[in-house]
Amino acid sequence: MRPLFPLALLAATCLAGVVPAGAVSTATGSPAYLTEIEGTQALAWVKAHNTQTLSTLQADPHYQPLFQQALALAQDRDRIPAPSMIAGQVYNFWQDSDHVRGIWRRTSLDSYRSAAPAWSTVIDLDALSASEHANWVWKGADCAEPTEHLCLVHLSDGGEDAVTLREFDLSTGGFVKDGFSLSRAKQEVAWVDDDTLLIARDWGLEHGHATVTPSSYAFVVKQLKRGQALGQATEIYRGKPTDMSVAPTELVDGDGHRVSLITRAVSFFEFEFRVMTPHGLVLLDLPKKATVEGLVANRLIVKIDQDWTPKGSAMVTAGSLVSLDAGHPDAPPMVIFKPTDRQSMDTVSVSRDRVVAGIYDNVRGQAWVFTPADAGWTARRLALPDNVSIDVADSNIHDENTFFDVTGFLSPTQLWLADAATGTATTIKSQPAKFDAAPYAVDQYEAVSTDGTKVPYFVVHRRDLKTDGSNPTLLYAYGGFQVSMTPTYSGALGKLWLDRGGVYVLANIRGGGEFGPRWHEAGVQTKRQHVFDDFASVGRDLIARKITSPDRLGIRGGSNGGLLMGVEFTQHPELWKAVIIDVPLLDMMNFETMSAGASWVGEYGSVHVPAQRRFLAGMSPLQNLKAGVKYPEPFIFTTTKDDRVGPVHARRFAARMEAMGLPFLYFEQTEGGHAAGANLVEKAEEQALEFTYLTRKLMP
């Protein structure tokens, strides 16, 4: 593929005196060394651009006040500690100014319900990192059910997805001597019992062939017994090298039933499920687009993401939740929940004897409990607040206690504790208000997209808003992977944006899951232009309503949303004054060979399919930058340690803009992974940089 602009121009417009241009990739028009994520030349390029960006934004008089506010909010000790029930106690991972990397701690449920829980530290990540001269980032723990005293702790170097696993004994409070220890890899593990693991990871070359897929995930599952070395593990299942991944799961219910499950991900959205039995693996008769959510009363709980007609049964509508008899998986499924056209099931979990779920109706949350019965399932809606977001925060198989997060744009987050058996629910934690919500209101509008589809969006604004087009407005969306964007309380958004005169807009565009699988399917692969058109239509609707104008309208998105921003930047530069492109995909002609990019073919399509290649070529932000176009100056943000999307997309995009003489700001955090900063200070710094940029562009 020829470069889209002369190589002489590239050489002439690079940062003078920073790093030599080196070889230039004819496929991307950017220096080839930028693909070496931690290469010397690449990091020198990053350092030069970081210095330039920081000298611009941190010198702005708005930066320090914004940073101090963001840091105070991030480190505020009155945040709600997210609960995780393990072995009858509440566990929580916590970071603050005294615990920069964080502590894993626990308390009793009674104590947790109090205003000042008596926490005891289980693992101090700062102390562990110091003793081992490491930069450990917490990635969670998997504990062996039902006893849950043995756990595999996930530790990441700098925030990347690859983790080191170490066995920890909660009863003794220490790592197990000579216990299970798995070296760094992208890996999935399940406890079969206290002495047996199922592991999917990179097993190295076997018979001259790799054991990871092009997506960088494992496709071989092995069983490891206590005392065995990794090389002694026994193979249980081998997928195909062309798969996205293969992973094990162990499901346990409140009655002690167990199901060992092997999930083969053919693509990001297509799966095969195999149950381990004494006679070998048994393939479940499920549609490809389905997700196993848990086990209740020896019934597998399955979310169905495509219309499905089981043998001898009526059609099951996409978005439904069903149960399968784990002892007789060939028996007809029972429907637990069937959505309407404006409903979606967002979070699903299991308690001892029930299924609990967060369900959205026109992007407004509800909490439901489903109980198995002889003839099917009964349903009960819990009495939680209306017109907010409601999601399951945690539940466990030992009792009916279920935590729900309840939040809204102007409603500080609350944590509710429900008894799934009785249906009673009470507020046990409330986040104090971080800004005065009285002056503000939330409206929900609909924009009409280019094909006539109505696209809802929320506007958070001052009650005395003047519709004269003068309001600084930040528009956010995601639009992919069936992920729903719902109202959420943010102290940073309130203090750093709303209180300073800004308007915030959240768009529920296609590609997401706000209205179930069909809303997502309408925006995948070659249909993805619907996603981009929906977003632009919301922008135009805001302008038509005179809420804002192109000179006062900024947009922001990350990851898949970063791709959205890149496309909106290149397709509609006239609509936006500010564009924040976070941890993005931008080179869609090469994304399949970058980091975990091959895993997203189901979402984006493949350059190896002619029709999909043509579409990708026509929308890929990197390849569609054009000389002579007046683009806004974007702020491009990424992280070196992101091993999911990777920083190369952002680097190439910035390098091409640089070669074309286009203005931009670029910042690459050196740690933190795909979730950006590894600690609260770094996350506050990112927020301050972004809001300083927005202030400079939209609040002159």
Automatic annotation (TrEMBL):
Protein origin, superkingdom: Bacteria
Domain Peptidase S9A N-terminal: 33-430
Residues making up the signal peptide according to the UniProt record: 1-23
Annotated ranges, domain Peptidase S9 prolyl oligopeptidase catalytic: 496-698
InterPro entries per the UniProt record, alphabetical: AB_hydrolase_fold (IPR029058), Pept_S9A_N (IPR023302), Peptidase_S9_cat (IPR001375), Peptidase_S9A (IPR002470), Prolyl_oligopep/macrocyclase (IPR051167)
A Gene Ontology term for the protein's cellular component: cytosol
Keyword list, A-Z: Hydrolase, Protease, Serine protease, Signal
Keyword Protein biosynthesis set for record: no
BP GO terms, sorted: proteolysis
Gene Ontology MF terms in the entry: oligopeptidase activity; serine-type endopeptidase activity
Stored Pfam families: Peptidase_S9, Peptidase_S9_N
Name under which the protein is recorded: S9 family peptidase
